[in-house]
Input
Amino acid sequence: VACHAAIWTWDCICALFLPSLSAMEASPQDVVDGEGPVGCICTCVSACLPHFVKHGKISEDAAQSIKLFRILTEALQKICSSENRSVRALTYEHIAVVHKALAENSQTGNLSEIEGMAMSFVCQCTIILSDKCRYPENYFSNLSTNNDEDLEVERNDVRDLLRSVCTLELTASQGSRVSLMILDRIVEHCVKAVSDQSGHSNLPPETIIHAISAPAKSLQILARALTQPGEIDQHLAEAIIHNSLDCLSIYCEKLLN
Output
């Protein structure tokens, strides 16, 4: 029902959503609540995307299902990219809901098209959120000033979200398989971002370390699991560990030089 309602009303919602988001962008320090068009989009994501993950489509018209899936994920990514901190915060629980649906409903290692899109959506949103909560330039120049408590809270919340979508519980093999794939994507993003900066004199963005250090416990579990063949995808696990170490190595070399 929610999916059909979203299809029928999308044009009207979108006409309200974009101006509302722009108005919030114009006042990045204002605190907003979850009401209105932006909150409506977030609720649509929680109501519709888990249904897609579980059932694959909402009708015999698969193209219609894919279209709705894409417009909802693109809309939530716009919200994640907002310059308004409280707007970005509206997305956290809805990203977690999509991840939970993936972990509970993905039955094989080979994801369906919808499941693959949902996994990419979770990865992109968490990466965007991590990048948006970077420390401002010269934030640490004057250590006598008070820190930005709202920024620190946001950074902690984003780290919690990153940990959540990358959590590995080797006793729950299928849910862990999805989280393992998400962890792989996030680590790949971090090592690529650091490598792209290797020819520059400046340090790579600190948000890279912020992102790759968040799932440290999962990386530790993964490293331990490599000594127990059969419980995980050995090739994927080795690639994740190697990429993580490469990322930290490149960053440390830049820091020392």
Summary: The chain has a mean pLDDT of 85. The first helix runs from residue 2 to 26. Residues 34 and 90 are 7 Å apart (CA to CA).
